[in-house]
Design brief:
Elements: H1 14-31, E1 33-37, H2 38-54, H3 60-70, H4 73-86, E2 95-102, E3 109-115, H5 140-191
Helix pairs in contact: 1-2, 1-4, 3-4
């Protein structure tokens, strides 16, 4: 009986499984996102997240331990140079699995597994803190400034009305001057 045995063997012997996970982890580190089945992605997550955590400590010993799992110099150097710097403040959960549907050939459940900090569409920027205000009576100084602003605006309105009237007056005079001229022409036409 297999009570309590959660390890997914993925239908492979241990050497084949370790090699496959090492290759997938290297590809994930190099390309930041890979397409695979959900079962392999879940196994890969358990394999690669401890290695990413180990990469936060950049020492010779931790590099050797990571290399013993990945077996790829380029992936190890990429992990320590770029990925470790970007995830330095994250306390875990470095990968994300996005399901994409079923494969046509065998109907296997497919997904993308990606490094969380490298997906620009899904990363959320921290929300800016909204300044909180209290509802309270305005202070005496505020009342005075509001009152003076009201007076200033009323004075400005009065001045604007006077200016509008002054501008409108010459136009009205021009209309009255033009009106008699039109009458003169009509009178002359009537006389003829």
């Amino acid at each position: 009986m297999r009570h309590g045995k959660k390890f997914n063997h993925l239908g492979r012997k241990s050497a084949h499984r370790k090699a496959m996970l090492a290759n997938m982890a290297s590809s994930l580190i190099m390309h930041k996102r890979i397409n695979t089945t959900v079962a392999k992605a879940k196994a890969l997550r358990k394999f690669v997240e401890p290695l990413i955590t180990k990469s936060k400590d950049d020492s010779t010993q931790s590099r050797r331990v990571v290399f013993s799992y990945l077996r790829d110099k380029n992936a190890v150097s990429e992990l320590y140079r770029e990925v470790a710097i970007k995830i330095a403040d994250r306390p875990g959960g470095y990968t994300r699995i996005l399901k994409t549907g079923n494969r046509l050939g065998d109907n296997a459940e497919m997904c993308f597994i990606e490094l969380v900090d490298y997906n620009e569409n899904r990363t959320t920027e921290p929300k800016k803190a909204v300044k909180k205000t209290r509802r309270r009576k305005p202070s005496v100084k505020k009342k005075e400034t509001v009152a003076t602003e009201a007076l200033v605006t009323e004075e400005e309105k009065a001045e604007a009305k006077v200016e509008v009237k002054a501008k409108a007056a010459p136009k009205a005079e021009a209309k009255t001057k033009e009106a008699p001229k039109k009458e003169d022409k009509s009178d002359k036409e009537a006389e003829k």
